[in-house]
Design brief:
The protein is an alpha/beta fold. 39% of the residues lie in helices and 15% in strands. The chain has a six-stranded parallel sheet with strand order 2-1-3-4-5-6, with helices on both faces. Strands 7-10-11 form a three-stranded parallel sheet, covered by helices on one side. The longest helix has 20 residues. The termini are far apart.
Length: 452
């Protein structure tokens, strides 16, 4: 199958906040296939929402194999694209990504897919593509974990609209050994924390300087980047010695991995903000989610971040076991008391393989989580929750979510959502919160218009 054509597809919702950042997993697979002699093209709608439809690209590129990465929240998009792929019966069709790892049992019943990849796919993709066989029924492929020192560089130069890449996803390690009850990382990657050699990571960044001059942001996408704090400090030292004209951002960092030295190194590296996963500020719920840290440690890390001058972010989850409207108010107070500059108010999605999924199967009610989005980019709108209980039904979860967003001014105010905000405030009886929030948001918009 050498020199055969492979099309790799990454769907994206139009409402996604991220644009111009290529999908890392697709890029890594492309790098592996290219090194094996395949002709690869990447159709990544995260980079450019205006890329041509899948069918049109298939007609022009004429691939022998097509692979699509599936995120559970984007299932409806992937479903439509699978229909387009299915119109080409001779095409070998692969599915990967988080949804394929967590829901492989469901995808093996989908006749539109030939191979379902579970976990990290670098060590299995070439073999399947070289075989070039269409099986009688969908086959689950579960490759071994790759050697972290041999992971290929992502081949983002194969992306259509590659000139629009402005954010570069960087991975310095994989896996997370902690046991948070809501986290699906162990089912997608591994609980074993596995670092890449620092020299290799820095070498990748040197390549970014040469090949992707349009990049303005380096986004560290590790599951737990600072698990080994000494190693992370070593990486940041090396990064600061060679850094380009980039803003540095980091997806996941635990509060107990944040000390004064790491904060100073991140600030020097051009990091503008650090977001901490609080999840919930009620002590009882916080303890039950098994994060393995304390609220006091989060407070101390928040203080360090605020004192540095960087912006402080906090992530919360609404709808965990034992949660309620009144308990959500505790998270709101925690965010305010610690001076959070921005917050992500997420509604719980209990994915397969998580401890919280098992809890709701026994003690609550679950809906189909496919295509569920916790909140749109303005955070005001939210879909009906996937999980609920008699004591905290879906209607109360939605009210709690709106209350948290409104009370912390953590939303975009637009002409489109202005009336919706007012309607919801009256619907939920949050009139005081509305009149506290709206004036400050209107002043914020006025100031933004007055800036040169």
């Amino acid at each position: 199958m050498a020199n055969k054509k492979v099309l790799l597809i990454s769907p994206a919702l139009k409402s996604m906040m991220v644009i111009g950042r290529p999908h890392l997993g697709i890029g890594l697979i492309a790098g592996k296939l290219t090194a094996a002699g395949f002709d690869v093209r990447i159709l990544d709608y995260i980079i450019d929402r205006k890329l041509p439809p899948v069918g049109e690209v298939i007609d022009s590129f004429k691939p022998d194999i097509a692979g699509i990465t599936i995120n559970t929240a984007y299932w409806s998009l992937a479903d439509r694209m699978l229909d387009e792929l299915d119109e080409h019966p001779g095409l070998i069709k692969l599915a990967g990504g988080p949804h394929s790892s967590l829901y492989s049992d469901e995808l093996t019943k989908d006749g539109r897919i030939h191979y379902v990849f579970r976990g990290e796919s670098e060590e299995g993709i070439v073999d399947i593509c070289e075989r070039g066989i269409i099986p009688d029924s969908p086959v689950v492929v579960e490759p071994p974990l790759p050697d972290m020192s041999r992971i290929p560089l992502p081949a983002f130069d194969l992306c259509m609209s590659r000139e629009k890449i402005i954010e570069y996803p960087l991975q310095t390690s994989r896996g997370c050994p902690f046991n948070c009850i809501f986290c699906e990382v162990s089912g997608i990657s591994s609980k074993k924390w596995r670092p890449r050699p620092i020299g290799q990571v820095i070498g990748e960044l040197e390549t970014v300087k040469q090949k992707y001059p349009g990049v303005r942001i380096i986004q560290i996408q590790d599951d737990n980047a600072a698990h080994d704090m000494d190693r992370f400090k070593e990486f940041l030292d090396a990064y600061n010695s060679m850094r380009g004209d980039w803003i540095l951002r980091i997806d996941n960092i635990r509060a107990d991995n944040v000390d004064a030295e790491i904060v100073a190194l991140l600030e020097k590296a051009g990091c503008e903000s650090i977001c901490l996963g609080v999840e919930h500020a009620n002590p009882e719920i916080f303890k039950s989610i098994k994060k393995g840290e304390t609220l006091d440690r989060i407070r101390e890390s928040a203080r360090l971040i605020k004192n540095s001058g960087m912006r402080l972010g906090m992530c919360f989850v609404i709808g965990l076991p034992g949660d309620s409207y009144e308990r959500t108010k505790e998270s709101v107070r925690f965010a305010k008391e610690n001076g959070a500059d921005f917050m992500f108010w997420n509604i719980l999605v209990p994915h397969k393989g998580t401890q919280v999924r098992e809890w709701f199967e026994k003690n609550g009610r679950l809906r189909d989580e496919r295509s569920f989005i916790s909140a749109m980019d303005d955070q005001i709108m939210a879909c009906r929750p996937v999980a609920e209980t008699d004591s905290f039904p879906a209607s109360e979860i939605l009210k709690s979510h709106f209350m948290a967003v409104l009370s912390t001014n953590n939303y975009k105010l637009t002409k489109k959502n202005f009336l919706t905000i007012i309607f919801k405030a009256f619907q939920y009886g949050l009139i005081k919160e509305l009149f506290r929030s709206l004036p400050s948001k209107l002043i914020e918009k006025l100031k933004a218009k007055m800036r040169p």
